[in-house]
UniProtKB/TrEMBL annotation:
<keyword id="KW-0472">Membrane</keyword>
<keyword id="KW-1133">Transmembrane helix</keyword>
<protein>
    <submittedName>
        <fullName>Oxidoreductase</fullName>
    </submittedName>
</protein>
<keyword id="KW-0812">Transmembrane</keyword>
<feature type="transmembrane region" description="Helical">
    <location>
        <begin position="477"/>
        <end position="501"/>
    </location>
</feature>
Length: 504
């Protein structure tokens, strides 16, 4: 190993038998495959110089490292790559400085790496950590790879603790498997954070992913991954026909106050929540939210205070009534995937607001109007009035029902015109039977019950009939009611015509 370090070559102690070389299997590795952790630390911290024309590096494969590997606070200049290795005890790297560190397909009791600093990558792909990983306040110069890694919880319930961590480029954790809380509070990712195909589970705590105030400069992917890809590379979007593994989260997910430069993508994501657990996106900000996962059967989806530009969603992705909150949720464009009729969208709004609030309805109406769907916008505002009516006292509620039944709160002016025509016809027939002495005998136009009724119904316009004839008894009350209804209906027709002209 000493000579391989000076030569920059691989030191390989594998036996050639797959079952015996599996670092995660139960086959014992004897002293012939063992190296003391103190010797490895000595090599990395104060090793011999490289041979002439070579670059020293530590490349181990199939090696068992006994005792604790302690590099805390050290500066390690050589390149470090350990593959298919087995550690007897924890690896201590707090405040250590590396160029690049790779622990690929290794069995590690625990990785303690708080405030570790790497100029290049930190690769932990396919490794298994039996009592968790600690990367709090770590600084990774380029990429952090956790693809196909497995992490079990520590005594605090966390599988991976990355609070305050900074990653210069991508954080790839595709097909990651965790059994405890994945904590990324206040972490910063310079490009994208990919959890494609990962399975996060925390059956002993409240949250499987706890990442408030997370900042991702590009996109957070909680989407499917193609099975069988290179664990050291991002699979990206799986090609058609590829066998995929979806993102699954057993336990709560918290992204409150996060900032995402491009999008949050939840395509085909599956969330298994308990009744008191949340998929929480409070106050997140992102240009696009792709809410196209499976509908959670339990728990609550919370988007209160979130701000997005494009909301891409499916009708089948939203939970049932009472299981999601959108108070203060703002979006500028709706991009539904599949069938999402307006009737279903209105049910979505009603389900999301157990207590009446006008803002969600007005926001949806504005978006529909801006996209040229004026009729749908009026339907939304009509639904808002109907929802508001349920909060009013009895008298106002009765008046609201009358407005709805007659003129649909003015949002269907055609109905008002029909009512005017019906009232005109009925009142014309009625007035044909009325006693109508002239106000000034011998003057004025000839009596015409149809024109008299129209003169009463149409405000402002004077056809000369109303002021030429005097009605008596109950006909005066009928005339007064007709005048009042005429003002209401004519105003409604005028308002509807004005909206139509303004749109054109």
């Amino acid at each position: 190993m000493w000579q391989a370090f000076r030569n920059g070559s691989l030191y390989d102690l594998r036996s050639g038998r797959m079952d015996a070389d599996d670092p995660h299997g139960g086959h014992p590795w004897g002293p012939e495959r063992s190296v003391r952790g103190r010797i490895v630390a000595w090599l990395l911290l104060d090793g011999p110089p490289a041979l002439d024309g070579r670059v020293s590096s530590l490349k181990l494969q199939g090696v068992q490292i006994t005792d604790t590997l302690d590099l805390a606070g050290g500066t390690i200049e050589p390149y470090v790559e350990l593959k298919d290795c087995r550690f007897e005890k924890e690896v201590l790297l707090p405040e250590a400085h590396f160029t690049t560190l790779r622990l690929v397909n290794c069995s590690v009791p625990r990785l303690e790496a708080a405030r570790v600093h790497t100029e290049g990558d930190l690769h932990l792909a396919r490794s298994r950590f039996h009592t968790g990983v600690r990367l709090t306040d770590a600084h990774i110069g380029t990429d952090l790879l956790l693809n196909q890694a497995v992490a079990f919880r520590d005594r605090t319930g966390k599988s991976i603790a990355g609070d305050g961590m900074s990653v210069g480029q991508d954080l790839q954790a595709e097909m990651l498997e965790t059994h405890g809380e994945l904590s990324l509070r206040g972490a910063t990712v310079g490009v994208s954070l990919s959890l494609r195909g990962s399975r996060l589970s925390n059956t002993h705590g409240r949250r499987a992913l706890n990442a408030p105030q997370l900042t991702v400069e590009r996109t957070l992917y909680l989407t499917p991954a193609g099975v069988g890809g290179n664990p050291l590379q991002s699979n990206g979007t799986p090609a058609r026909g590829t066998r995929v593994q979806r993102f699954e989260c057993v336990g709560g997910l918290r992204l409150d106050d996060g900032r995402f430069g491009d999008a949050i993508d939840l395509e085909a994501a599956r969330f298994t929540l308990q009744h008191d657990q949340e998929l929480s996106l409070r106050r997140v900000q992102t240009p696009e939210l792709r809410f196209t996962g499976e509908r959670p059967e339990r728990g609550v989806v919370v988007l209160s205070g979130a701000r997005v530009v494009n909301l891409v969603d499916k009708a089948t992705s939203w939970p049932l009534a009472g299981q999601f909150r959108v108070s203060g949720f703002t979006y500028e464009n709706l991009i539904p995937i599949g069938a999402f009729p307006l009737r279903r969208r209105l049910c979505w709004l009603s389900d999301a607001t157990p207590e009446y609030r006008p803002e969600p309805y007005e926001q949806l109406a504005t978006i529909l109007r801006n996209s040229g769907e004026d009729a749908d916008a009026r339907e939304v505002l009509l639904a808002k009035q109907r929802r508001r009516r349920e909060t009013l006292p009895v008298a106002a509620k009765v008046w609201g029902y009358m407005q709805d039944w007659t003129v649909a709160y003015g949002y269907r002016p055609g109905r008002a015109a029909v009512w005017m025509a019906v009232l005109w016809a009925v009142s014309a027939v009625a007035f044909s039977r009325a006693h109508h002495p002239p106000i000034q005998p011998g003057q004025g136009p000839r009596w015409d019950p149809a024109l008299f009724a129209l003169d009463l119904l149409l405000p402002v316009i004077d056809l000369g009939q109303e002021h030429s004839w005097r009605l008596t008894d109950g006909w005066q009350w009928l005339a007064a009611v007709l005048i009042m209804l005429g003002w209401i209906l004519a105003t409604t027709v005028a308002a509807g015509a004005t909206r139509l002209l303004r749109r054109n």
